[in-house]
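Problem: given the chain below (151 residues), write out its structure.
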Amino acid sequence: MMGFLEKYSRREQILLLIAGGLALFLVLLLVVINPILNMRSNNLADLASAQETYRLVERAAKNGGSTDQLNPDQVGVIVRRSAQQAGFQLSTFGVSDNNRYLVKLNDVSTKDLFAWVYGLERDQKIVVAEGDIRKDARSGAINATLFFVKK
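Solution.
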């Protein structure tokens, strides 16, 4: 290798060694150091994402599966307002033993009931956790007992 540099003057030899050193440093930077730094930043982003997911799961576990912080009374306000707008008369409403909002409806049509429940889910993210729907044999109307939670 040094035989290659012998045909150049001392000054040119120093310049070629410096240029070679810089080229070697650039290759080392691009091939080794940059991927390590990128991997580290990706791992930091993955860690932040995992921590956020953990916080969401932890909050959901505390709220019975819901990541939203609405309590049953707030869900009740939304459900009652929505039921009134849909033209339903609520025969019973309130918070059940397991923090779900209880609604009893009498003499409603199937189409109106399911449209209302779908609208609550779509617009407010409030879903039926449990329900009992019975059809009145005489009138064909629906009597429903529904328990709502925030999805």
